[in-house]
Design brief:
Layout lengths: L3 E2 L6 E10 L4 E13 L8 E3 L5 E5 L7 E3 L5 E3 L6 E6 L1
Amino acid sequence: MPGKAVTRFGSEGFTARTVASGDSVHVGVLRLDAGGCIGRHPTVQRQILLLVEGDASVSGDVGRPSVELTPARPLSGSRVRVTRRRAERA
């Protein structure tokens, strides 16, 4: 699924595509190449991160420990600030 390349906040190997959007929800598909990175940035709404394949390391605020994600382990929550993601493999 093609998307738009994202380079803000130092992101690398990252594309995004909006699938649906409304008053209270936004659904997007993100693709992160192996070794790619979504740069640290502030979140603006609740979010759920669900991997389809591969592994990712996710960290929140500076100094907080990272969480390892796999397709079987989604991350969600209103207070979760997902601010950095790095793909280990495609």
